[in-house]
Write a structure and sequence with these properties.
2 copies of one chain form a homodimer.
Chain A lengths: L3 H10 L6 E5 L12 E2 L9 E2 L3 E4 L1 H5 L4 E8 L14 E4 L11 E4 L3 E6 L2 E6 L10 E2 L10 E3 L7 H9 L4 E5 L3 E7 L3 E2 L10 E2 L2 H11 L3 E7 L3 H14 L2 E5 L10 H7 L3 E5 L3 E2 L5 E4 L5 E5 L3 H20 L9 E4 L3 E2 L5 E10 L5 E5 L16 E5 L5 E2 L4 E6 L6
Parallel strand pairs in A: 5-6, 13-16, 13-17, 14-15, 17-21, 19-24, 22-25
Antiparallel strand pairs in A: 1-12, 2-11, 3-10, 4-6, 4-7, 5-9, 8-9, 18-20, 20-21, 22-28, 23-27, 24-25, 24-26, 26-28
Chain lengths: 407, 407
Amino acid sequence: MISVEEATRRVLATARPLPAETVPLPAAVGRVLLEPLYADRDFPPFHRVAMDGIALAFEAVAAGQTTFPIAATQLAGMVPQPLADSQTAVEIMTGAVLPPGTDTVVRYEDLQFHEVNGQRVAALQVAPPAAGHNIHHQAADRRQGDLLLPAGVRLSPAEIAVAATIGAAALPVARALRVAVVSTGDELVELTQTPLPHQIRRSNAYMVQAALRQAGAESEAFHFNDDQDALRQGLPPLLDSFDALVLSGGVSKGQADFLPAMLQELGVQQLFHEVRQRPGKPFWFGEKPRGAVVFALPGNPVSTFVNFYQYVLPWVRRCQQPQGYRAQPTALLATDFSFAPPLTYFLPVRLELAPYGHWLAHPQPIGGSGDLASLLHCDAFLRLPPELTEFKAGDAFPLVQFRGLGS
Amino acid sequence: MISVEEATRRVLATARPLPAETVPLPAAVGRVLLEPLYADRDFPPFHRVAMDGIALAFEAVAAGQTTFPIAATQLAGMVPQPLADSQTAVEIMTGAVLPPGTDTVVRYEDLQFHEVNGQRVAALQVAPPAAGHNIHHQAADRRQGDLLLPAGVRLSPAEIAVAATIGAAALPVARALRVAVVSTGDELVELTQTPLPHQIRRSNAYMVQAALRQAGAESEAFHFNDDQDALRQGLPPLLDSFDALVLSGGVSKGQADFLPAMLQELGVQQLFHEVRQRPGKPFWFGEKPRGAVVFALPGNPVSTFVNFYQYVLPWVRRCQQPQGYRAQPTALLATDFSFAPPLTYFLPVRLELAPYGHWLAHPQPIGGSGDLASLLHCDAFLRLPPELTEFKAGDAFPLVQFRGLGS
């Protein structure tokens, strides 16, 4: 049996980069860019007026002039009009091009206006300190040809806006992962069926599909009874056409748990079976050469859940963004906790945001019932290492979060 | 001018609950449930075998018996067979119904098997300590009729799995918010056009639409030049058919900034104009009675961005989930910082996850350039209060996060 850390390493080592597909800009949010984007012109592309007010030549201010007849008015989007007479000014709006012949903007707050013979005149209340004031100069932020977004970034709304600025109407992004979600077990019936007294409805597959959907992966669901012939026929096409298979059930020591042998018979190489952890120990993991990666998770709902968030989700992220760095979040245990077996224990916790910006994790032991309903009041698992038995309030441990908070 | 806190209160006070729509279970992840869900039967629905092994009558163990002939084998999903002879046992798999006549399960790890005259016999290596061992008892987690999910919860994968368990093939959830994203400004051209030297491409609308999409809201984009007649004609249908309008540009003191007056002329009641903050001060906010809420954001890209995350996104969340509690995350300033004006300052920061589970915020001043490209290396704004001038390393401040980390 291997450790959680070794199992995680072996899982992540099988992540494969995804090929590109081109999607329209609005659909690209959350996706990973596969080609770099460069500035098509300077940022800003011209000396951009940064405040509403007047544009003037600073030499006139330096010479002591304090009132400026308004020679023209220029709004954003207008073709700039050169200032012919440096004793006058252009009334000007934020976003406009600085008119040739001017080099300084004085904002409305620092001006008073009056009329002289029907001529609008601005009087300086606060003189500008230097030329260049209130101007966002051409190329101050980026030069034409500069790298704006490197390949490999995940596109958040800020990146989408920058891509819009350079006219990228569509972007090459990593295509969505395609995952087959396979449930096995004679005791399971479909959602819409009424179970007999000894049956239950399929729920793990819905959990896995929902979590994949949140992660931006596509999935399709398949169900097989505990019937070796059906699996022998049904699995090979899935192994050849999906990036990954997520199975739940059939990997323990029971008589109906023939999946590990069956997968190897179908050409899937076992990379490990069983991890030193609770819950979720009987996890089987393998990869078919030139085919799918196979996560065969134990079928107990909480075991499926823990292993999805510890192994499957990080693998999905790594495939989407091979260079992506993700900090491993940690939280502080809120109360003492004991766990004796030499296994990594995934302790269900409710998270509380403490005033100084750290997370407090309140243990919510669920008594090993395997019931997902008992996780409804939890937000995460705290991953307690196997070497320790007593875990003290205030100690920090890695966090495996399954519910968004504050987002 | 009002404070950021007062502005936020007034914005959130206009949040309206959304009507229900029914969506298929897989599409309900991330949505807010509008009707409670109850257990359709006990959880578990029967005495559920929790380990692979044998089921027996504890009275035989108590009487000193240590070997048990296997009378039958029962896999999960099989109709349970009563144990006729309490001196025998049923070989049994996880998930099966406990057979009538048995009350205890012994796992394979605590057994050895041998054959006696062709009869499979299990010998106890570790005797079970009491009746009921390794059984997940009927109704241990929930009773039929118990509340499983109250109305108002946001459906994460755990809730989806629980809904599947009770056969909820479709769920009543809050319908998506519908937002009109309106850009104004003669200087703006479409993404696919080549701008003239004094023009730039629309980018704010793409940013806002991307962020709304991430938040689960639907949006449609509209553009108007700085033309009062076009706005007077174009805005009323939007005010009557969308939940909200998000405008950017046209709310400052400039000559083309006629939006506040125009909106009031169209029946939108002003709730405030201008907030004591930088950037983003000229924010105008109003509501049309029986119509849309109107966020008229300043058009400088960084101002639009700050105000979207400080006001629009929390309003969207409040509409989706009126009872939703969200902790206000905080982060610790990593280095000293000064800001003198009596305004709330939204300081761009890069976040670092510190070893004890808190966030360190590294200031990344962007020089007031208003350029979104300068936010590409930032993750959040730290909201620095107006009362202070000197902000010390190690002090905690509220965090307005715009990029997901560790999720």
